[in-house]
Amino acid sequence: MSNGSRLRRISSAAIAGAAAVAVLAPAASAMDTTTVAPAADSSASVSMNKLTPDKYMAYLVKQRTPESRGALKTFRALPKAKQVKFLGYLQSRTVYMAFGGQLRGHADENKPVRAVTNHNKDVKFVRATQTNKTKQGRKATVRVTFTVTEKVFNIPVTSEQVWVKYESKQGEVRKVLGGGAKLTNLNAAINITGGKVKPTNLEGHNGFVATMWKATQRVDGFGGDIVKQQRVQAGWGNTFKASLNNA
């Protein structure tokens, strides 16, 4: 075979190969643009949302309340290491689960009752009741307010309150006149909702008010919702008992 014939055969084979590559090219291009969704447990699908000192201070500024302004001033004065530790407590499920307690007292004393539980050296829960009794002849109007406050480095971060007002006669609860609830929450790690109350007259001359508070996470890692019941009950002899517990 001559050199010319051999070159013509090689050239024809090269052209045929190039044509085959051209036919396959669109399919290869389509495969290159295909995206694969990450698995559900892939780190690519996890949003890391944590509090930082700057984020927390911005949160307090937006609240625009006397409580938030006081907390902002005190938080800013903390050393950086304590600021980080403070935020760790706000994001702790264990701390909020422990938040609560009970108190008993006597409305006739017309003075506050206060008790403190130290969760640790940095965190404490302050329970307090305030009673106000106004006499009207043989009858009296009594109001009992129960508040539980979480403090971190002595900075109030969450305060949950209920109150009941009732009419008494000779130490018996005759009629519940009203009740309510109040929330102050400066914990940026959770949203807290609830606070609806229904004042109730109970059998045995008792007046009762209760509400439910539901905490929902705003940061990763806090976990599922935590529901607490807060109540205050007045009984015979103008005594009362109050509590805040996990529901």
Summary tags:
single chain, 247 residues, alpha+beta, six-stranded antiparallel sheet, five-stranded antiparallel sheet, 5 helices, 11 strands, 43% strand, elongated
Shape: elongated
Distance between the termini: 97 Å
Mean pLDDT: 81
Main sheet summary: 6 strands, antiparallel
Low-confidence segments, given as residue ranges, are 2-48
Helix/strand-derived category reads: alpha+beta
Number of helical runs? 5
What is the element string, with H for helices and E for strands?
HHHHHEEEEEEEEEEE
Beta-strand level of the residues, as a percent range?
Answer: 35-45%
Helix content: 25-40%
SSE arrangement:
Elements: H1 3-32, H2 53-63, H3 66-77, H4 80-90, H5 93-98, E1 101-106, E2 113-118, E3 123-136, E4 139-152, E5 155-169, E6 172-185, E7 190-194, E8 200-202, E9 206-217, E10 226-234, E11 239-246
Antiparallel strand pairs: 1-11, 2-3, 3-4, 4-5, 5-6, 7-9, 8-9, 9-10, 10-11
